[in-house]
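Comment thread on ticket #2218

A.B. wrote:
> Attaching the input chain for the structure job we discussed in standup.
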Amino acid sequence: MSEEDKLLMTPVSILAAYIIETLGKMTDASDKSEWPLYKTSMPTGDNVEINCGALYNTTGMNESRLMTGLVVTHPGIQLRIRSSTSEIGWVKIEDIADALDKVENVDIVVKGKTYRIQNASRTSPIVPLGQEIGTRRYLFTVNYLLTVRRIAG
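C.D. wrote:
> Ran it. Output below, let me know if you need it in another format.
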């Protein structure tokens, strides 16, 4: 893989920036505002919003190899939503999933580098996981394969 073919950051960071900055469906976790989106973990505790989300890197897929030798990789992403009620969580994850289903060649700048998310392919339906053990918080997940590449920076 050549240097220009490397993402230089995790797919989670790229998709999180898109969900927060372009879609406006969630907020940066450091802002301490409603519906924070965390990366690779979902914190718990008394000082953490109940209604929040997290993106996790998951198993992706190698699709093919181009004639240049480059392997086309689709990173796997899981979106997890936690909410105070089942209805609130369902509506939130459905809203974000519907928006991601429409992604087609969108550019996002993250830390001075421009990435193109060509596609977000949903690989699962929305899955209600029920309540967290020992709490009254509800969990939902949905999984994606991304087609993403760095185009500048």
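A.B. wrote:
> Thanks. Noting for the ticket: Residues 53 and 81 are 4 Å apart (CA to CA).
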